[in-house]
Structure formats: structure tokens, C-alpha cells
What does this fold into?
Amino acid sequence: MLHFITIDINKHSEVAIGFRKDSFAASFGDASDFGDEKKYLNWLEIMVKDFPDGFVMVEKDNRLIGQLELTIKEDIDRKIGYVNLYYLVPEIRGNGIGKELHNYASSFFKSQNLYEFHLRVSPTNTSALKFYQKLGMEEIGQELDGKVIRMKGFL
It folds into this structure.
């Protein structure tokens, strides 16, 4: 059984940085575009305050195995859910647990009365693309000069 625990910056900062950097490596081949760790932690602290149920560590058998970063974005005429990060440690991927993270994200967005969500994925991260397509998400365009693909899904 998975447990979703609100990120505690004091307790989880090193793990959060490690997970986020590994997500860059999985997406882009390395973590060189990660940026400044302090800026990330400052941003994370603000986001945890704004969305405590959206910024969570994923725990299984008393071990942190993943992280979710879920926000709400204001579009021109509406609000949409936004997945900043779906992350699982490499040895857990491909075992169906990603679907449980998606179910958590879906519940979070529905609790905010949102039924559409977006995310960005690297076109080279083929396993993530397949996962998102299996969830019924569709590509809606490229961003950052083709470095990422924006996808949308409906709940």
C-alpha cells in the first residue's frame, strides 16, 4: 500500500532534490538543466504551502519511492490541473505503481473541481510517453524549441 505524505522541506529536501535530478536524467539524459538547488527548494516550499496535498512524497513499506508535484494553473478563461512531476525510483517503474500515482493526482484535481490536466514530457522519454498515452492523454504541441511535448488529459 502506498502512502502520500506532504513534503516537509526540513525532512525531505535532499530526497526531493535527488528525485528531481533523476527525473531530469531520465527525461534528458542528464541533470545539467536542473538549475539551482536552493531556488528549487524555495519554490518547493512555496508550492507546499499553496498545495500541501499536491506536493507529496510517495512511501511504500517505509521507503520513499516517489514524488508528486501537482498545481493549478490559471489559463486565460479557466483553471487546469498541472503535473510538475510524476516520479518513481527506477527499480519501481513499470510495475503498475505509476497508475496509483495517477489515481492520486486525479483525486487531487477532482477535489479542486478540475477535470483537465496538463504536463510536459521529453520526446526522448519514450516510457513516460507510452504511460501517458495509455492514460488517454494526447499531445497538444511542442514547447521550449521542441525540448518537451505538452500533453493534456481529462478526468
